[in-house]
Design goal:
By secondary structure, this protein is of the alpha/beta class. Helices cover 37% and strands 16% of the residues. The chain has twelve helices and 14 strands. The strands form three sheets. A six-stranded parallel sheet has the order 2-1-5-6-7-8, with helices on both faces. A six-stranded parallel sheet has the order 11-10-9-12-13-14, with helices on both faces. It has a two-stranded antiparallel sheet with strand order 3-4. α1 crosses α12. The N and C termini lie close together (12 Å).
Length: 348
């Protein structure tokens, strides 16, 4: 039976990434099943921290049980703080909590400091999350990694449920070319500086194509010049979907080594395109798919260790083909049908 469903997400203005693509993909898949679906998105900002509580409260105050007098059958909440919304039939498909207050707290990736004000905001988020996430028994997470964090910080369980890539069914395997591909967002958590330092340690590094944008683009371009890699590294920014799919198909390998990633669409896309993945032992959700010497090469998060893996694939196309061929089967079961079958019946 068709349901009226709202997919709830939060949007940092001018920032677009995997969470936004997930919400859009979920809506499209639900509509293809015959449901009446729309996205509810509220803006929020992580600075100043005093705004985080009111952002969560804004979701809490929404009445989404009816729209223009017509009942809403199901709420699917994803990204922080959308899961604060109240509804008698609420399902959470957790992308992540506010990581700066959780697993990034106390690291250089967090903008929280050890002040009374920041501690108070963090305590507030912890209390609100336990309440908002604890009021529904229907909790899913986009990876085992995200589910593990949820359990660690709130004591709540969630069932891992992997989201498909927006390019599912379009990626294909081409020849193993001469270049290394990265389509990660250019920000600190993706650790693309590690890749550049690794390339600089090779006497004849392969060509590397960066396909994305982000706040670190200028710094990464400057680092490439500083390391003498200007002739080997290309920053293309965003490219059309067809071009990106073709770049996957022709790459020798795909580099994706973020720090403790929630999930990792890039990893799933690389494996679907039969490309070997180069990643690291601390890449988080990526390691739920990447297996060393089976479909990937997994190194310590050190430039010299990563350089050795890049060199192995650059000089041995047969190794690239062997690892790449094992990729598609690893991610074949990640489908929108599987997601919808889990999320929609979950609400009863």
């Amino acid at each position: 039976m068709a349901k009226r469903i709202l997919v709830c997400t939060a949007q940092v203005p001018f920032v677009r990434g995997g969470a936004e693509l997930l919400a859009e993909g979920l809506c499209a898949a639900l509509r293809a099943r015959g449901h009446v679906v729309d996205i509810v998105s509220l803006p929020y900002s992580w600075q100043p921290h005093e705004h985080l509580g009111p952002s969560m409260l804004a979701w809490r105050l929404l009445d989404l049980t009816h729209v223009d007098g017509v009942p809403v059958d199901l709420l699917i909440c994803t990204k922080f703080p959308s899961y604060a919304a109240r509804h008698p039939h609420k399902v959470v498909w957790l992308v992540h909590q506010h990581r700066q207050a959780y697993d990034w707290y106390g690291t250089p990736l967090s903008d929280f400091t050890n002040t009374a004000e920041d501690r108070a905001v963090r305590d507030l988020l912890l209390r609100m999350d336990r309440t908002a996430l604890g009021e529904t028994p229907h909790r899913f997470a986009i990876s085992r990694n995200v589910a593990g964090r949820l359990q660690r910080y709130t004591g709540l369980d969630a069932t891992p449920l992997y989201p498909p890539s927006r390019y599912a069914g379009q990626l294909y395997a081409g020849p193993y070319g001469e270049y290394l591909l990265s389509d990660a967002r250019l920000d600190a958590a993706k650790r693309l500086d590690l890749l550049l330092h690794a390339l600089a340690r090779l006497p004849d590094p392969p060509r590397c194509i960066f396909v994305s944008s982000g706040p670190q683009r200028a710094a990464l371009e400057a680092l490439a010049h500083q390391l003498g890699l200007a002739a080997k590294v290309e920053f293309r920014g965003f490219v059309p979907d067809d071009d990106l799919i073709a770049l996957y198909a022709g790459a020798r390998a795909v580099y994706y080594a973020p720090f403790d990633e929630d999930y990792g669409f890039t990893a799933v896309q690389a494996l679907a395109a039969a490309r070997p993945l180069i990643t690291t032992t601390d890449a988080g959700g990526v390691l739920e798919f990447a297996e060393h010497q089976t479909n990937a090469l997994v190194a310590e998060p050190d430039p010299q260790a990563i350089a050795a893996q890049i060199d192995a694939l650059s000089t041995d196309v047969d190794l690239a083909a062997r690892l790449g061929t094992a990729g598609p089967a690893r991610v074949a079961a990640i489908t929108w049908d599987a997601v919808i079958d889990a999320l929609v019946p979950a609400a009863g």
